[in-house]
Amino acid sequence: MPTTGALTSQFGCRKVIIAAMALIILVIPMLAVITDPILLGLAQLLFGIGVGITDCAMNIQAILVEKESSISLMSGFHGLYSVGGIAGAGLMTFLLALGINVTLATVVIILCVVILAALSYPGLLAYANPKEGPAFAMPRGIVLLLGVVCFSVFLTEGTVLDWSAVYLTQVRAMPETLGGLGYTCFAVAMTLARLTGDKVVKYCGRLKVVVVGAMIAALGLAMVTFIPLWYLSLIGYALIGAGCANIVPVMFSVVSEQKVMPQAVAVPAMTTLGYVGVLSGPAIIGYVAHFSSLSISFSLIMLLMLFVGAISFRLNLDQTGSSREK
């Protein structure tokens, strides 16, 4: 991810996105057939490189498109990202349920990706932000604050992804066959909130969306943590998804307007810091739970979302780009 800004500045969004997607397409079949742990690890490393560059380059293009259109589009972009995640998991599950073997099912997924890439190609930008400064720099100033917010939200998302089923089945005594419903409620609510997020941002403003979203997510975490009824926990997970949904898209819109760091450096720096939350979140939760309990771990995440709401007032989210430079 940290190298993506320099790559897009040099080659443009189109070439970088297509090259990264080609790497993903080439590696996916390996994930289905490799049995050696070391080779599988190397294949996953290459897959992660492709996904990381694609993710970051798409956000760089999204920022450019939003700036040129002068209207809020970022939540919709991220909403379709969420739709893709649900569609991919659903399609793969459907194919396997039909009795199709993993390799053939993977080929079907690859064909879908190739078709989508071909349809997207004309709309990919042949340019990106001009290269200014180093290829990579640590986030500073407002970019650091934006990255901290992304880190906190991604950490929360990672916690729900990796620990919701364990929590529901082991703490709330939910049947194991239904353990995945927590993340399902979270993902569906997040997707719906993102698809409507641009209109909400337009009418309510960025600051209200972020602060209220953080409060809703904290309320959802409180329901999950303190109400001992698993069906209310499902509502709690839905609230977490709806609350977190539009916070990160707003951060990407804001980073495009700051002048503290060049965009070619700022976007990858903020994105990388955010995704550290996805990696570290589940491990942190597990570590804290080992010495206390999952309920205490979730309580800390609730406090983290309250922190996101509080720090948002420091970002002047509804002010002009020149105000954000301070």
Automatic annotation (TrEMBL):
Gene3D superfamilies: MFS general substrate transporter like domains. One of its GO terms (cellular component) is membrane. InterPro entries: MFS_dom (IPR020846), MFS_trans_sf (IPR036259), MFS_Transporter (IPR051788). Keywords: Membrane, Transmembrane, Transmembrane helix. Its main location: membrane. The keyword Disulfide bond does not apply. It is found in: Membrane. Residues 1-321 form the Major facilitator superfamily (MFS) profile domain. PROSITE patterns: MFS. It is a multi-pass membrane protein. The chain crosses the membrane at residues 12-32, 38-58, 79-98, 104-129, 141-160, 180-197, 209-231, 237-255, 267-290, 296-317. GO terms for molecular function: transmembrane transporter activity. PANTHER family: BYPASS OF STOP CODON PROTEIN 6, INNER MEMBRANE PROTEIN YBJJ. This is Major facilitator superfamily (MFS) profile domain-containing protein.
